[in-house]
Amino acid sequence: MLPIEEKLDPRVKRTRGLILGAFTNLLAEKSFDAISVQDVTEKAQINRATFYKHFLDKYALLDRWVEQQFRQEIESRVLDACHYTPDNLRILLLTVCEFLFKVRTDCMQSQRQFEPLIEKQVKNQVYELLNVWLGKMNPHLSTEISATVAAWAIYGLASHYSHAKKLPALEKFVDEALPLVAVNLEQFA
Amino acid sequence: MLPIEEKLDPRVKRTRGLILGAFTNLLAEKSFDAISVQDVTEKAQINRATFYKHFLDKYALLDRWVEQQFRQEIESRVLDACHYTPDNLRILLLTVCEFLFKVRTDCMQSQRQFEPLIEKQVKNQVYELLNVWLGKMNPHLSTEISATVAAWAIYGLASHYSHAKKLPALEKFVDEALPLVAVNLEQFA
DNA sequence: TAAATTATACAACATCCGTTGTTTATACAA
DNA sequence: TTGTATAAACAACGGATGTTGTATAATTTA
Q1: Is-contact A82 A88, C-beta < 8 A?
Q2: CA–CA gap between residue A97 and residue A177 (Å, rounded)
Q3: Pick from B115, B177, B184: CB nearest A180
Q4: Cβ of A175: how many Cβ atoms within 10 Å?
Q5: Which pLDDT belongs to residue A128?
Q6: Is residue A28 part of a domain?
Q7: A183 contacts in B (CB within 8 Å)?
Q8: Which of the four pLDDT bands, split at 50, 70 and 90, describes residue A3?
Q9: How far from each other are the two terminal CA atoms of chain A, in whole angstroms?
Q10: Yes or no, beta carbons of A157 and B146 under 8 Å apart
Q11: Quick check: B2 pLDDT over 50?
């Protein structure tokens, strides 16, 4: 599950770093839809054909980018190395809300392709995390369905929040929404 | 909200019908990603430029297609003209599961663009439906958050079911999963 | 250090895309 | 029925895509 840090040819590491870096910069200027592979390779000072050696297409690049960004948020809060508590669940929901909000404001939002890839990555990571948490609590109960419901609910709430016209205070929103998620996980406590 | 049946130029109606029809047929042979606008217009016997008069791109076409297909499922079960009961909620979850399963098996599944658009359409329709249901029950309570959680949970469960390697009996799955959705709506009863 | 492996640069390709301008055919209303 | 409006056909464009083949440069291994 962890991204195994294989010994990589330094050229590969360098090239991938250049691509990711160029992409990060471009996202600050343009919407994802408006970014072409050419843009990325020009800014990265990389040949276009080289790009395709490392990524299937620009969507795979975004996928990788989101994976890194969100994993960083999770790890910086040590959520990946703790266990379930109502408070940690609250922090998780907050994290997802803030991440989506940041991504939505920083990177000029572009509907078509951007959001679904964000969703897939974030939702998966939340799902995996919940599975670990629940598995620790009661190893005899099946966690799949509860983790699925909770992961989708959490992302849905965060998405709802980040889309809201006039957003309420985040804390207030989380206070109101959290019980709806927590109620499904109580059976494991 | 309802797709207003405007009086349309018969040429328009004919062309859109041809496009939707060609697209339906193509989905049975190819994955969505593999279908090009050219494919559609060739099969529809339509000029490619004409296509762009009616749809922004092939994703907009899929969007429209899903909207029609799923709305049909909802309406054929009269879910849009009834009110909340635990049993209707059950039917709704079943409907989404069956729809996703059908789509997944009929149309050769293609990850990248197909699923997200299905999700957006289906989830929105479920959300709107739940808002109506909940609004009827207790007009004083705010429905947004509950409807959001429930809509995401329902779609997530259906997605989980349709992705499962060895799928359990649908009825069994729904029996197990339904309470996790229903518990969030009980405050309205 | 020398030979091998492998990444990148470069150029060229067919394909699809979305758009534009013009002409022809169809629908509708006076 | 005739005039007007508008949809569709057609052709052509610039641009991005993804792929391929060859040459060069860097890294690793022996």
Answers
A1: yes
A2: 12
A3: B184
A4: 11
A5: 97
A6: yes
A7: 183-184
A8: very low
A9: 26
A10: no
A11: no
* ipTM, 2 dp: 0.88
Contact yes or no for A180 and B180 at CB 8 A: no
B127-159: per-residue pLDDT in tens?
Answer: 999 999 999 998 899 999 999 999 999 999 999
Q: What is the CATH number of the domain that holds B71?
A: 1.10.357
Smallest CA–CA distance, residue A186 to chain B, in Å, is 11
A36 is near strand C: CB distance < 7 Å:
no
Q: Would you place residue A108 in the very low, low, confident or very high pLDDT band (cuts 50, 70, 90)? A: low
Residue type, A160: H
Q: Are B84 and B180 in contact (CB under 8 A)?
A: no
Share of chain A above pLDDT 90, in %: 72
Task: Please tell me the number of Cα atoms within 13 Å of A137 on its side-chain side.
Answer: 21
Chain segment A174-187, per-residue pLDDT in tens: 999 999 999 999 88
CB neighbours of B42 closer than 8 A, spacing ≥ 6? none
| Per-position DSSP letters for A142-164, written without gaps between them | --HHHHHHHHHHHHHHHHHHHH-
Burial of B1 from C-beta contacts in 10 A (0-12 / 13-18 / 19+) = exposed
Answer whether residue B34 shows pLDDT above 70.
yes
Chain A residues within 8 Å of chain B (Cβ atoms):
59, 112-113, 115-116, 119-120, 144-146, 148-149, 151-153, 155-157, 160, 176-177, 180-181, 183-184
Rounded Cα distance between A84 and A95, Å, is 15
Under 8 Å CB-to-CB from A64, ≥6 apart: which residues? A20, A55
User: Which structure tokens are listed for A31?
Assistant: 């919407």
Q: What gap in Å lies between CA B141 and CA A32, rounded to an integer?
A: 38
Q: Using CB atoms within 10 A of its CB, is residue B144 exposed (0-12), middle (13-18) or buried (19+)? A: middle
**Total of domains in chain B:** 2
CATH number for A27: 1.10.10.60
Whether residues A122 and A87 fall in one domain: yes
Asked whether the beta carbons of A101 and A174 are under 8 A apart, the reply is: no
Domain interval for residue B86: 57-188
